[in-house]
Design goal:
The complex is a heterotrimer.
Chain A: E1 4-13, E2 16-26, E3 31-35, H1 42-49, E4 56-61, E5 64-65, E6 74-77, H2 89-99, H3 105-114, H4 128-140, E7 146-150, H5 158-174, E8 177-181, H6 185-191, E9 194-199, E10 202-208, H7 209-215, E11 217-222, E12 239-245, E13 248-253, H8 257-266, E14 270-276, H9 279-287
Parallel strand pairs in A: 3-8, 3-9, 6-7, 7-8
Antiparallel strand pairs in A: 1-2, 1-4, 4-5, 9-10, 11-13, 11-14, 12-13
Helix pairs in contact in A: 3-4
Chain B: H1 2-35, H2 44-51, E1 56-61, E2 67-73, E3 78-84, E4 90-97, E5 107-111, E6 114-121, E7 124-130, H3 138-155, H4 158-163, H5 167-170, H6 177-210, H7 219-243, H8 250-269, H9 276-290, E8 304-305, E9 308-309, H10 317-340
Antiparallel strand pairs in B: 1-2, 2-3, 3-4, 4-7, 5-6, 5-8, 6-7, 8-9
Chain C: H1 15-29, H2 41-48, H3 52-64, E1 68-71, E2 75-78, H4 83-109, H5 113-127
Antiparallel strand pairs in C: 1-2
Helix pairs in contact in C: 1-3, 1-4, 2-3
The chains are: A alpha/beta, B alpha+beta, C mainly alpha.
Chain lengths: 302, 344, 132
């Protein structure tokens, strides 16, 4: 029953602007992926959403600002371990049972067993990945309406990573709203309907995964010589970048790939083809469009 | 957060209980080893006279079971009667005549459950030492206060401990920060109270191992109890206020707090007006001493001479209790206000 | 339903299109029979570990293309009437596109008409052997 609305969120730590005028919406029951390089501000966004840091702008849940009672409906997995090292996982389960009405200890123990964690072990004896798993188990054992997950698979082996992904998919099927960040773009691709790419605290890209994949393509053509003009292509606002190496030209387009294919052919290119982009490529080009290392073409001699 | 704090308090109390039980066992061992030594050993003076070759030593058992030892030394004009009532304590009467009689006036000294009365009787001085007398709780509360202060220090940084990497779990609960803070404080104060109770039980048991205790609980003891508890609470509150905003080095802050507070308390009582530096120090220290809980702590009535406490004892413990209570509340409020603005 | 569906999240093809394509192929090949029940949206999402909305969208498109039909409360089933044919024709479209692209590439690479004819003849012999 929960939509999340972030409006003009800004947060500075001293002189550093960690988040800069960010606005996005998580529709009810959808899974939203937050991508971005390290230091892009993803964790800061989550902290602001949870009232753990002051900010300007607004964050609303179902139209209401965050109050202590809202936490009954929100479950959170932070990026690093915040468990009490001297307590056992079982004691954390008990702590949550007392704190939240909708917490189900049986489910928590079930999840801990699935992650192969001994609940009687003190948390300081658990590895980083296992601590993440404990926090995941604590969060998913609640019938929360909103899940906020900051790198919920960090430190986990591939089997457990897939397990967490299954849990997210399961929650999505139940209609829970999920917003999660991950460096595993393959995971985001599978689980999220919408993504946002953050860079230096700003929104670099936002949209439905399917639409982004359908619209963003690389159109490639081979010209008779290295200096053929590309009028009608370079200036178009739907073109994100153009790279050429000798006779090969590649154009990264944000929409209308077929149109550009035709234009390239009309401009004299042969062997015109349209290349699909995976989400990882879309992400990489979004965060460093002008960077030479993200060239659409491999460097000469490589 | 309350559950977590209760767990912390519980662990702390378990350790305290274990330490006290170990001490108790040690006392038991000491007591058992003393059993083999025998009566008349309690005072080295008595012992010395007993072993003097010029003394006549007689042992008699009175009808009520008391073992009486009579030591007569005509050479030194000393006559000692030691009544050993076993578990009920001892009564030693020393009669010094002649050259050894001192011209002292009649006075009494009471230290815990040992009462010493000295009175002149003609050309003699009669000193009566009585153990096993009714005892007030002053000493007990003093020791309990020390334990309480230590426990208060151990528990004294609940907010800093949460700040140190647990805020994401502590502050994402459907409870206001103020409520979380108060529940943690409640748990810690209950822990301090429990530590007091454990210590007093330990002391009663310890005393009973050696001697049958007689207790008297008067109004002075009641105030002493309240004073002790409130001073621990105020100390805890001060540490909370000092560490509420910090994340890491709260152990160092608590470690520094002790010597600084003791120094301030001591300097506040000393007359420094002699030198100019002294006056400057006095001006700095006086306001600090005012807000330092240790200034108001005094350990029991100490030694009582002729019915009143010796030394510089406070004469207005009620005033101290009120000031300490106010300090405790103010410090706690400061701690909570700071904690409301901490960011994860 | 046998587990013939796999999803490549790294491919540039949207996941819902991959699902549609693979279900159509299964129907065309007879792996999915007419009248057979498909897993629920939720179950398929869990099996493939993909967002349920993605599966829902695939099912919607399949229904629009008359390959499956969904009865509320009962589930989704492969259509009995002509679903196989439409699936087969969809699959045929994919094959046709692939062939066209291959020929275009061959031309761009510089193969002559005769060379291409030769390549096609070899493949025909192999995959479409004539009755003797």
């Amino acid at each position: 029953m929960s939509t999340i609305e972030i409006s003009h969120l800004s947060k500075a730590y001293g002189k550093v602007q960690a988040v800069n005028d960010l606005s996005l919406q998580v529709p009810q029951g959808s899974v939203y992926g937050l991508l971005g390089p390290n230091g892009a501000g993803k964790t800061t966004v989550f902290k602001c959403m949870l009232g753990l840091a002051g900010f300007s702008g607004s964050v609303r849940y179902d139209g209401e600002p965050l109050v202590p009672a809202t936490f009954e409906r929100i479950a959170y997995v932070p990026e690093r371990s915040v468990l009490y090292e001297w307590m056992t996982a079982a004691e954390h389960v008990e702590m949550n049972r007392r704190a939240f009405e909708s917490f189900e200890p049986a489910r928590a123990y079930e999840l801990l067993a699935q992650f192969e964690i001994d609940p009687r072990k003190r948390c300081r004896a658990l590895s980083k990945g296992m601590r993440t798993a404990v926090m995941v188990a604590l969060a998913f054992a609640r019938r929360a309406e909103v899940l906020i997950l900051d790198e919920p698979t960090s430190g986990l082996d591939p089997i457990n990573q897939r397990h967490v992904l299954s849990l997210i998919v399961n929650e999505a099927a139940r209609g829970t709203s999920v917003i999660f960040s991950s460096h595993q773009i393959g995971q985001v691709e599978r689980a999220a309907e919408r993504i946002a790419v953050l860079e230096h605290g700003r929104l670099a890209l936002e949209g439905l995964v399917d639409d982004l994949k359908a619209d963003r393509k690389i159109v490639e053509g081979i010209f008779p010589d290295a200096t053929s003009p590309l009028d009608g292509i370079v200036g178009d606002p739907r073109v994100a970048r153009v790279d050429r190496a000798e006779r090969i030209v590649r154009v990264l387009v944000l929409a209308g790939a077929d149109d550009f294919a035709t234009r390239l052919a009309s401009a004299g290119a042969s062997g015109v083809r349209i290349l699909d982009l995976g989400l990882e490529d879309i992400f990489l080009y979004a965060v460093s469009p002008a960077d030479a290392t993200a060239s659409l073409l491999p460097k000469a001699g490589s | 957060m309350a559950y977590v704090e209760w767990l912390r308090v519980w662990r702390c109390l378990k350790v305290t209980a274990i330490v006290l039980v170990v001490l108790e066992i040690l006392l038991l061992i000491v007591r058992i080893s003393f059993l083999t030594i025998g009566p008349g050993d309690s005072l080295s003076f008595v012992h010395g006279v007993e072993n003097d070759p010029n003394s006549h030593v007689t042992h008699v058992t009175l009808p009520d079971g008391t073992g009486r030892t009579i030591i007569d030394n005509p050479k030194d004009s000393v006559h000692i009667v030691v009544d050993d009532r076993g578990y009920q304590g001892k009564r030693i009467q020393i009669i010094e005549s002649g050259a050894h009689a001192s011209k002292e006036s009649h006075h009494t000294v009471a230290m815990g459950d040992i009462h010493v009365e000295t009175r002149p009787n003609g050309g003699q001085t009669i000193t009566t030492i009585d153990t096993g007398q009714p005892e007030d709780f002053g000493y007990y509360f003093a020791i309990a206060a020390v334990v309480g202060l230590i426990i208060a220090s151990v528990l004294g940084a609940p907010f800093a401990r949460e700040n140190d990497g647990h805020l994401e779990i502590a502050l994402t609960k459907p409870v206001t920060r103020e409520r979380l803070a108060l529940s943690a404080i409640g748990a810690d104060l209950a822990g301090i109270l429990a530590a007091w109770a454990l210590t007093i039980v330990f002391l009663i048991v310890g005393h009973t191992i050696f001697e049958m205790p007689h207790y008297v609980f008067g109004p002075y003891d009641a105030i002493g109890l309240v004073l002790g508890l409130v001073s621990c609470a105020a100390w805890y509150a001060m540490l909370c206020a000092a560490t509420s905003s910090i994340k890491r080095a709260y152990g160092a802050v608590i470690g520094f707090a002790w010597p600084v507070a003791v120094l301030v308390a001591v300097l506040g009582k000393v007359d420094l007006s002699g030198t100019q530096l002294g006056q400057v120090v006095h001006a700095i220290v006086t306001p600090l001493a005012w807000i330092d809980p240790l200034t108001y702590v005094h350990l029991g009535r100490g030694v009582i001479v002729n019915g009143s406490p010796a030394g510089t004892a406070h004469s207005a413990p009620t005033y101290d209790v009120i000031v300490l209570a106010i300090l405790a509340v103010v410090y706690l409020a400061l701690a909570i206000v700071q904690w409301r603005r901490v960011e994860a | 339903m046998p587990a013939v569906l796999t999803v490549d999240s790294r491919s540039g093809v949207p996941i819902y299109l991959q699902i549609i394509e693979q279900i159509k192929r299964s129907v065309a090949l007879g792996v999915l029979q007419a009248g057979e029940q498909l897993p629920t949206v939720k179950q398929l999402a869990l099996d493939l570990t993909v967002n349920p909305n993605t599966v829902a969208r695939a099912y919607r498109d399949l229904e629009r293309d008359s390959v499956i039909e969904t009865a509320p409360g009962r589930g989704s089933f492969v259509r009995g009437d002509g679903a196989v044919d439409s699936a087969r024709s969809a699959a045929a479209d994919v094959a046709r596109d692939a062939l066209t692209v291959a020929l275009r590439e061959a031309k761009a690479v510089g193969l002559s008409r005769d060379e291409v004819r030769e390549l096609i003849d070899v493949s025909l012999e192999r995959w479409f052997p004539e009755e003797r």
